[in-house]
Amino acid sequence: MSSCRLSTRTKNSRRLVALALGLGLASAALGTAGPASAQDTAKSPAAGYVGKADGAGSKAFFDAVLAKVAERQAEHPSLKVVTVYYNVGQAPSFRSQISSAASIWNSSVSNVKLAATSGGADFSYYEGNDSRGSYASTDGHGSGYIFLDYAQNRQYDSIRVTAHETGHVLGLPDHYSGPCSELMSGGGPGTSCTNRYPNAAERSRVNQLWANGLAKALAKVNAAR
């Protein structure tokens, strides 16, 4: 009997992996790897607060998160709102900013919610010094994190920086040429910009991404059963 259960679980796991690959998603959990060194992180597609926009890096980060969430959601298909879990253990200096950023997003969108956890997380925050500033990074295979740079968070509004980087987890790319009213314009409008909230278009895009992406994921899982 136990052998039969194991076989069923194995089949389900394989189906989920196939689902992730079919959707072009990474198939491993986030939050397990951080910035080991500047050399390591430089190899990863990254989306930063100031710099050249990297839409591919943002999408890879979002896809990696969604792959993990899809596995969890497939076990509870009746859930209407997706919860993405984050860990702040490696960024103790930014606990307040991270909490504020999560609250901002939770009050701005309805199809996905952010929640802190001390256990297994979908992604993690890290802090430290990096000449590139703050950024969201992924290796494209499910390992990703948000890095918050000390100097940049003193120069720019820290909650805006954190909310901006968290936007990458939710699927938004950088758009540095945008106005201050656009959260994903990041540091483009300059240090005087203190807007911490996504605009209507950004809110709509995140809701659309999570509603459509997860619906397709669950549909594929149900079809494979």
From TrEMBL:
Gene3D superfamilies: Collagenase (Catalytic Domain) (3.40.390.10). Residues 1-38 form the signal peptide. GO terms for molecular function: hydrolase activity. Pfam families: Peptidase_M7 (PF02031). Its EC number is 3.4.24.77. Belongs to the peptidase M7 family. This is Extracellular small neutral protease. It comes from Streptomyces pyxinicus. The gene is snpA.
